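User: For my dataset I need records formatted as: sequence, then structure tokens, nothing else. Please produce one.
Assistant:
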Amino acid sequence: MTGAMTAVLNKEMIKDAAISNAIGVAAFILATTLGAFVRIPLLFTPVPITGQTFFVLLSGAILGRRLGTFSQFGYLLLGLLGLPVFTGAGFGLTLLFGPTGGYIIGFPIAVSGALGYIVNGLSVSHLPPYSVGYVYLPALACIICASVLTAPI
């Protein structure tokens, strides 16, 4: 029974790579959207802690640099087109000029920049096994830099 179960788990359910990639991108657009509704307000800043960051980084870690970036640009595009996908059911171009706009713009940058680079080829052999810091901290730095660059003065 164990051999049969392993064969089932190792078998690809979708043979076409394009369809598999499209499903992965769509799944992370949805996951990032749902993560936007998991929010912890902070008293000292208008920017809450949300579940988006987790799914942004996970998209790059699972889908890789190119597809993870596509998923985050897709998320950004849906919000710009008027779907309420941003934190607090926000949407539209005006939200990008608010306090959370830099973070939202930074999502694709984080995936394509630091995280995608690390996942797709940077050697991390000098770090302890199962270290999350080599993925999370550079991506967080990209998000912070993007938010500083796009924050209203």
